[in-house]
Amino acid sequence: MRIAALCGLAVMLGACTPSAGTDGAPSELSPSDLQSGYAFLTPETQQLQDDPFENPGYLWVDRGARLFQVSEAAASPSCAACHAEGLNGAASRYPAIEPGSKRLINLEGRINQCRTEHQELEPLAYESEDLLALTAYVANQSHGAPYGAPPSADLQPYIEAGRSYFETRRGLMNLSCRQCHTETWGKALRGDTISQGHGNGFPAYRFEWQSLGSLHRRFRDCDMGVRAEPLPYGDDTYVALELYLATRGAGLEIETPGVRR
Amino acid sequence: MTGIRLAVPERAQKGDVIELKALIQHPMESGFRRGSRGEVIPRNIITRFECFYNQELVFASDFNPAIAANPILTFYTRATETGELEFRWTDQNGESWSDRKSITVT
């Protein structure tokens, strides 16, 4: 029964054909089709995201706003001591290459870098409530700003690495991200509609989690969904994937904190 | 650091019906779920919500296990006098959290 159901699912997703994208399905999103995950929500959920009081993601934004003002140790300035004017638009520029280490870092990585280099503090654990709160607070200051790092030649190898992860089939179900989110978006999967897989609402509040979560937590859920081994939180490949998604979704606006199913 | 969000109008006309909203961050763990090793995740819920208007109880609600995490309530009361609204949540172990907002009635 279970096997039959899975096979039916695989057929629906076109996974039984050996070469994806050859049966007329597009392999790239066309800019005119670009739709935020918001467009795939029910009107009630959209209303919940739009209401800055009822949207539960703002619990974390509030917490982040408090943490931003706090100096955790005598020798350690608060975030606000340097960023008194806030960080409006900053989230649009991430993931970015960190000039010192020449590594690609996302917003979470940038916050932890500030902690270790400028605040003499330990980095926060990925997916901890405090890191989620600070990330949500900083990203929320870019609410409505363009999603996606500005293109640059330096980023190209990382974008390609992210694209490669996105397009590679993996897991027991042998599915790539692209097969669902580029070729099959808008169709039904179980009780849900497949979105285009953009990251512009993250960190987002998901009903399934009953909590706010990072984009990497979402990646891990997708990887587990196709029965593949998820990568660790903050993994370089996930950061590259985050960057690829940001270039793929360029034209959307940042919606953090989004509400998702 | 439990997050509480309250929406109370700053001012109202005497006799107006005002909308109040109260949101609290809480897992509302039902006690019916199991973890990845099959162990029962213990129940951890808020059982009672109360709203006082100048110490007078104007709204109360009993919570049960089927209520979602981070519960939000929207309810109404009549603006009678300038003062303070207190919102209080109490969990199954008797621990409670509260916050206040003032309102000016003219």
Give a written overview of the molecule.
The complex is a heterodimer of chains A (261) and B (106). Chain A has 261 residues and is mainly alpha-helical. Chain A is built from 10 helices and 7 strands. Chain A has helices at residues 2-12, 43-50, 58-69, 79-82, 107-118, 129-140, 156-167, 177-181, 215-225, 236-248, and strands at residues 96-97, 104-105, 188-189, 192-193, 204-206, 211-213, 259-260. Chain A has a 3-stranded mixed beta sheet. In chain A, a hairpin with a 4-residue loop joins strand 5 and strand 6. In chain A, helix 3 crosses helix 6 (129-140), helix 5 crosses helix 6 (129-140) and helix 7 crosses helix 10. The longest helix of chain A has 13 residues, at 236-248. The model of chain A is unreliable at 1-22 (pLDDT under 50). Chain B has a 5-stranded mixed beta sheet with strand order 2-8-7-4-5, with no helix packed on it. A 3-stranded antiparallel beta sheet of chain B has the order 1-3-6, with no helix packed on it. Chain B is an all-beta fold. Chain B is elongated. Chain B has strands at residues 4-7, 11-12, 17-24, 46-53, 56-62, 72-78, 83-91, 96-105. The termini of chain B are far apart. Chain B is built from no helices and 8 strands. The model of chain B has no long low-confidence stretch (mean pLDDT 94). Classes of the chains: A mainly alpha (261), B mainly beta (106). Chain A binds chain B through residues 53-54, 56, 58-60, 62-63, 66, 210-211, and chain B through 1, 3, 5, 7, 21, 23, 25, 27-28, 68-70, 72.
